[in-house]
Design a protein that fits this description.
339 residues; alpha/beta; 39% helix
Length: 339
């Protein structure tokens, strides 16, 4: 069924297809029909960051930026769903076209630019959702906020989503917001995370619950830079790291139509690069901090590969676009087989 749907959807522009698919998933969720799209994966419970997951395969942020299809997505078999990236104020993102399919490489290039309806809108949709599983909310900064003041935007989002998230992801690695990736390094990273950690202490006291904070990093760092990031995460009391976001590299798409478009590359070409970052993180962290692996999972064996590299959970995005809900079950089965 999904293969037929994909053939039809791929005749549309990527962004039109994305919006239509999300609307259909949302409608299917309201009608309780999405479970018919694919056989549900077997339960494979796991505890990570103090949270109980039905299985270790989740949806990465970016597909449902505004939280409009939470119930529909949760019915497809994901062990957890991450929504966003959301910013304090609504913003249109970058000019269209800004998503490009590279089907020969099972890849996507996007330069969306954190297009979203703002954090207040997202919170209202989370409140309306019936889903009670693990929900991650991914937060970022507005384009017009100077990077020197980025912490203010993250604090606004943290304050507003805290009571409604199972965990919160701090996105400092999108390549599509100017200057954002500079927050991954040195004192900028340390000061940002220390500030968020301090605010969490207050929020935890006010709400009676400590919500885990995970940091999403880029795949385009050297091993030395990755080690320094890992050390900073430990020093500042973070609860997890998501490796990785999209890449600026164009290895694997050279000469393909749209292969030279600006933006972040995801899908098969980033798989090995992302898995390498997972291995470096795992070596440095030594189990002290869980790793959520994302990047290039288009087959179940790729999910198992990420787990073998040191991940505790995995997330899919581009693979879900190309393979549909069956990839969730295939990934859960592959992870179960390696245990």
């Amino acid at each position: 069924m999904y293969n037929l749907a994909r053939q039809l959807l791929f005749k549309l522009s990527p962004e039109t297809s994305h919006d239509l698919s999300l609307d259909l998933i949302g409608a299917g969720g309201r009608l309780g029909l999405n479970g018919l799209l694919s056989k549900a994966p077997a339960r494979l419970p796991v505890t990570v960051m103090g949270l109980q997951f039905d299985n270790p395969v989740g949806l990465a942020a970016g597909l449902d930026k505004n939280g409009g299809a939470i119930d529909g997505l949760s019915q497809l078999g994901f062990g957890f769903v991450e929504i966003g990236t959301v910013t304090p104020r609504a913003q249109p993102g970058n000019p269209k076209p800004r998503i490009f399919r590279l089907p020969e490489a099972e890849a996507i290039i996007n330069r969306m630019g954190f297009n979203n309806l703002g954090v207040d809108n997202l919170v209202s949709r989370v409140k309306a959702a019936k889903y009670r599983g693990v929900l991650g909310i991914n937060i970022g900064k507005n384009l017009t906020t100077p990077v020197e003041q980025a912490v203010d935007d993250y604090l606004i989002c943290l304050n507003k989503v805290y009571a409604h998230a199972s965990y919160i992801t701090v996105n400092i690695s999108s390549p599509n917001t100017a200057g954002l990736r500079s927050l991954q390094f040195g004192d900028s990273l340390k000061q940002l995370l220390e500030t968020l950690a301090e605010r969490r202490v207050v929020l935890a006291r006010e709400t009676g619950r400590q919500v885990p904070l995970a940091i999403k990093i880029a795949p385009d760092m050297s091993d030395d830079e990755t080690v320094l990031v890992a050390q900073t995460l430990l020093q500042t009391g973070m609860d997890g790291v998501i490796a990785t976001n999209t890449t600026l590299s164009r290895v694997g798409v050279e000469g393909l139509v749209h292969g030279d478009e600006a933006g972040g590359l995801s899908g098969t070409p980033v798989r090995e690069q992302s898995t390498h970052i997972v291995r470096v993180l795992a070596s440095e962290l030594g189990g002290k901090l869980p790793i959520i692996a994302a990047g290039g999972i288009t087959e179940g064996r790729h999910a198992a590969e990420k787990m073998a590299a040191g991940a505790s959970l995995v997330q899919i995005y581009s693979g879900f676009i190309y393979k549909g809900p069956a990839l969730i079950r295939e990934s859960v089965d592959a992870i179960a087989a390696m245990r």
